Each structure stands twice: as structure tokens, then as C-alpha cells.
Amino acid sequence: MRPMLVVFLVLASLAVPRLAQAKPPVRTGKTLLDRPIWLPSPAPAAVASRDVLAFEQNGFIVAIIGAAKPVRLDTGRYPAVSPDGGLLAFSPDTRIGITLVNLTDPGLHALFLPSATTILEKYFSPDGTKLACRSDTRIDIVDPKPGVNRPYTVVANLTKDQTLQGFTADGSALVVQDLHHVTWYALDGRILRQEPLGTFTDEPAGSSADQYLPCPANANLLLVARSAPPTPAFNRWAHDAGAALLLYDMASGTTYRLTPNTIAAAMAAWTPDGRRIYFAGLPEAPANGTHKIYRINADGTGLTVIDAGRSPSVGTRP
Fold this sequence. Notes:
Blueprint: E1 10-11, E2 31-32, E3 51-57, E4 60-65, E5 71-81, E6 87-92, E7 99-102, E8 108-110, E9 118-124, E10 131-135, E11 139-142, E12 152-155, E13 163-167, E14 173-177, E15 181-186, E16 191-196, E17 211-214, E18 221-227, H1 232-238, E19 243-249, E20 254-257, E21 263-270, E22 276-283, E23 292-297, E24 304-308, E25 310-316
Parallel strand pairs: 1-9, 2-20
Antiparallel strand pairs: 3-4, 3-25, 4-5, 5-6, 6-7, 7-8, 9-10, 10-11, 11-12, 13-14, 14-15, 15-16, 17-18, 18-19, 19-20, 21-22, 22-23, 23-24
């Protein structure tokens, strides 16, 4: 790869989520044991063959485009793929700036963000025209096209326990989580809505490593990735560390667990159609194993192992 122009930002490592299995429901009517009618129906199997996946693997950014073999692109962390699968943004190994890769016409391009703060999460808007980036103190949005792009600040004065969760399905707002609430911000910084974490699961307390990811195709759905008690087998070697994926439906106010108790699931990402989810999972066996990238339908079916890795992001080619 040829040398890159990079963003004037210092990137820091994200805290690695602790992994575990979901807790049984403690309040009737919140977590459903039977399959609810609001679960999204799976897309045709052929649609997954158009997914463009990027993830971390042993310090490198790896991309899988459709049915092609995995390609190791460069050293880096925290990938973000545009909804159409055309662009990949990631933090280079120097931890300075954001590298932007054109996956349809390979090459590295520059984003100029005149800031010296540390970048953490990055998300493309559902239409791919915006890239939201969180630093320790604020959330900025920038046009991801190559060239000199000046960011603008949407949310200022963030605390370190606030994490960016992505854009809403219509692209008009950002979702931010802290230890107690999930908050919806308009792109001018106004608070549109705020809900305590107990709204979405049976457990009101949270962690900055949890996720509350808005579905890019259905405004009623929120994907929750959060810590929970482990199975006895996990507890013997993982020492009570873990997380599970749950889907929350705002219309009914109920939640359904998607991942099995044999996998501690975290670091999730929606596909643009809201029909599939990629995540990093730690299998119950063998003990002291490694994280793998999994794909699962948004109704909890079709669990598939993709490769070893973590921190996935995904788009889908038209």
C-alpha cells in the first residue's frame, strides 16, 4: 500500500469488553423465553454472500468481500465499513488518524480532522454520507469522501463513560450510551430522548463496554450486547467474564436473547438490512480458546462461524 495521509487525531485503545452469558429473566414481561412475533425474518441465504466484512485479527485489519477469501489489508484497529461495502475506515497501527480504504477501487485516502484528541468508536450513517467519530470529549461528524473534510461537533463535553452506538435508521440522530442511560441526540446536539438501561434489559446497571446498537433498518429494534453471569464451564476458566446478545423491541417493550449460552458474545455489528448480525464470540470449549467472528440471523437462527477475530463491521454490496 502507498503512504497515507492521516487524520490529525491520536487514537487510543478501546477497553476490551468482558464476555459472558445472559442472565435468566428476573422480571416477567421483560425478557421473553418464547420467540416473539416481532423478530425480523431472515433474508435469503444468497444475500449474505454480498456482505463485506472487516474485523481485527492479530493486530491486522482483515476484509472478506462476499465469498472471497480473507484479505489482510494493513495493521490497525476498530474497522468501520460503509453500508454499501465500498469504504472501510480504520485506525492505523500508529494510532494517529483514520485510514480510509476504497474497497471497490483499492487505495488509501485521507480524512482531515483538525483535532488532537483520541478517537474511539466510528460509525457510518445508513446512507453512507456521514462518518461519526467519538473522542474522549466529543462526537464529530465528517464527510467520508477523500479530500479535505472539516468535521463538525454534534455532542460536546462527553464523559469517558459515554460511548457512541451509531446512527438511527433514518440517519437523523446519534445514539449514545453511558453507565445508566441510552440517549438519542439530534445532529444539532439536542437531546431527543433518554431511557434508563433498565428499559431494555432486566439489569439496570451497565458497563461502558456494553452496546445498545440501533437497527439500521427498523427504528423499533435495538441490539444489546452486555455482560452477564457465565455458565459453570465458563466460570471455571474465564473467571466470571462474559456477555450475550439480546434484541429489544420498542413497540412491545420486550427483549429476546439471540445467542446460545455456549458462546460469550460481544462486539456486535448490524448488516444494513437489519437481518443479520456479526459479532465476536468466545466459545465455552475449549477452555482458554480464542475469539471467533460469528454471523447470526436477527431472529437467532443460522449461527455460522466465519473466522478468528474480533471487532467486526459489515456492509452489503447492492
